[in-house]
Task: inverse folding
């Protein structure tokens, strides 16, 4: 019988042995070839694929990558419950714009402010309606290309986790649009736009707590924190 520990020693900052996320880059790939690759690979896979004007990037997440990604997504859904906000998680659903020749599968995409525009269990999401929040985990695989894609697609907020900096919150600063492409840029922010009560510091405190306690205990701490915050504002 395999026993899984409830303590996540893998989250220790200096211990990533055997927890490498692998990345493969394929240049000179046409858009239709990329779409054929997506169809042939199917939906039942753990890889994340991105396309940026001829360059295909295939990311194969590690166990640690997925632990952090799913914890961050769970923190978001917990906070939306407590704050009575709607949320729709689309996971790693492909975001693409054929007119821009750009596409990406985020680690997690979430609609919060625009959740009311996504109807039904299998909705047709408009291509010009990006998620309100995207989560990207970079343990050993930088998401620089993905950030460029999210900027072009107009994703307003990205949480980017790295080994060195923990979670950094980025907000898109709009610089107008050219041929349907957002020409803005991302800047680091101390607080979330999707969930204004939440700061990057607080988010990283929850990740630190997860190193020495179970995930459910961490989520209970998230609930207690936001409840105390709401009570103090009454």
Result:
């Amino acid at each position: 019988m395999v026993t899984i520990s409830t303590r996540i020693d893998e989250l220790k900052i200096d211990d990533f042995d055997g927890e490498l996320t692998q990345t493969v880059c394929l240049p000179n790939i046409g858009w239709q070839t990329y779409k054929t690759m997506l169809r042939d690979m199917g939906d039942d896979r753990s890889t994340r694929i991105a396309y940026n004007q001829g360059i295909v990037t295939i990311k194969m997440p590690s166990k640690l990558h997925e632990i952090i990604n799913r914890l961050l997504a769970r923190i978001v859904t917990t906070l939306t419950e407590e704050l009575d906000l709607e949320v729709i998680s689309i996971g790693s659903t492909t975001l693409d714009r054929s007119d821009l020749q750009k596409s990406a599968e985020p680690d997690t995409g979430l609609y919060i402010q625009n959740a009311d525009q996504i109807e039904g269990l299998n909705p047709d999401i408009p291509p010009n309606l990006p998620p309100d929040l995207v989560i990207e985990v970079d343990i050993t695989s930088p998401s620089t290309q993905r950030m460029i894609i999210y900027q072009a697609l107009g994703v307003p907020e990205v949480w980017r986790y790295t080994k060195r900096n923990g979670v950094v919150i980025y907000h898109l600063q709009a610089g107008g649009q050219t041929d349907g492409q957002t020409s803005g840029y991302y800047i680091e922010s101390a607080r979330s736009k999707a969930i204004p009560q939440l700061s990057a510091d607080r988010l990283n405190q929850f990740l630190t707590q997860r190193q020495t306690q179970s995930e459910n205990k961490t989520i209970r701490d998230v609930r207690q924190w936001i409840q105390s915050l709401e009570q103090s504002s009454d």
Notes: The domain at 62-233 is CATH 3.90.1570 (tt1808, chain A).
